[in-house]
Known about the structure:
Bound molecules: iron/sulfur cluster
Structural class: alpha/beta
Number of helices: 12
Helix content: 25-40%
Radius of gyration: 21 Å
Largest sheet: 9 strands, mixed
Order of helices and strands: EHEHEHEEHEHEEHHEEHHEHEHEEHE
Number of domains: 2
CATH architecture of the largest domain: 3-Layer(aba) Sandwich
Shape: globular
CATH superfamily of the largest domain: LarA, N-terminal domain
Amino acid sequence: MSSVGIIECKSYDExxxxxxxxxISTPFAEEKAQNLKDKSVVIYFDFPLPHLTVLKEVIEFLxxxxxKEITAGTSIxxxxxxxxxxxxxxxxxxxxxxxxxxxxxKLTVPLHTEKMPDHFRGFGLLxxxxxxxxxxxxxxxxxxKRTLKNAFIPITIVDSDYIVPIVKLKVSPVSTLGGVVxxxxxxxxxxxxxxxxxxxxxxxEFENALVETYALIKDRIAFGVVDAVQGxxxxxxxxxxxxxxxxxxDGLALDSLSAVxxxxxxxxxxxxxxxxxxxxxxxxxxxVSLYGDEFLRFRKELKNLLKYGSxxxxxxxxxxxxxxxxxxxxxxxxxxGAIKRTEQGYTIDKKMCFGCMLCVELLPEVFTID
Length: 370
Ligand code: SF4
C-alpha cells in the first residue's frame, strides 16, 4: 500500500496553493522531511510546465526541510523555458540543467519479479527441462524478466540524493496518462526514448520498457507532486479546471490516482498495471490508500465531465502544414523515420508509422490527431 494525498485547490492564487500544499505535505513533513536535511535534490518536470506557484511551493518546502542543494531540470522543452521560471531559479540560487546537454550514465535495468501468469497451475504440468529451469529461477527469487537491458539517465539525476518529479495532470497520446512514469520519457536521451517507443511495435512491451526505465529512478523519489489545479486533458479550458493538488512518495501511486480521478480505471493505463505487476509501486488503485479531501466528490464531478473510455485505436497523426520549418527538428525524433521529406513538403509514411505520438507530443501545433 502506498499513500497518496489529494487536496482541493481551485486557483493558482499564491495563498490558495500555499495552504493546499501545506495540508497535503503535512504527513511527509512530520515523518520524513528530516531525511532531506543536507541532501541534494533535483526537481524535474516535463511539458506542459507545472504552474509557477506550485513550483515555488515545492522549492520553499525543500528549503524549509534544510536541503543542501536544489537543482532543477527538464529535457525536450528546456530551450523554451519562460523567463519567469528562469527568474525563480535565479532567485532561489537553483542551478537549471537542460538534461539533453547533461552527461548520461548507462544503467542496467533491474530484473524484476513478475506475477505468475493466470494460467500457471504449478510445476506439475511442466516438462522435466522446463521444471528444472523454473525451479532454478524460483531459487533465485526472480523470474528474470527484462525488456530493456540498459538505459541512459542524466548524471545530475544519478548523482543526486533525491529527486522530486512535478507533473501537470494531462492525457498523453503516447501512454494514455501523462503522469510520473510517462515523464521518464522526457528525462532520457533520444536513443533510450526511441528504444522504448519502438517497443510499441511489439505488443505489450512499450509499457514494460517505460516502467523498467522508471524503476531506475524510482528509489530516489523523495515525493512527487501532480499539479491538477488546471489540467491539460481537453481542448476546453473550462473542463480542465480540475482544482486539485496530489502528493505521494510513490510515482506509480500518483499515476494510479490521477487515472481514476479523470475517469479511467487505474489498469486502463498500461504502465500502471505493468508497474504494479513488477512490484515498482502501487499502480493499481486497490493498492493505494488515500488521505486528504473528498476524493469521491471530485471523481463524480470529473467523470461526468470527462467521460474517457478504455478503448484505444491505432491513430496516425496528420501534418497541418507540410512546409512548417519546425518539422525539420522533429523529423529525426521519429523512432522509425516515418516522417519523410518530399518535394511537396513533409509527409508521414502511413505504413511505417506505428502511432507512438512522439511527434504530436513534441510539436502539437503541426502534428495533430482527430
Ligand atoms: S510519425 Fe509520429 S506517431 Fe508515427 S512513428 Fe513517427 S513519431 Fe511516432
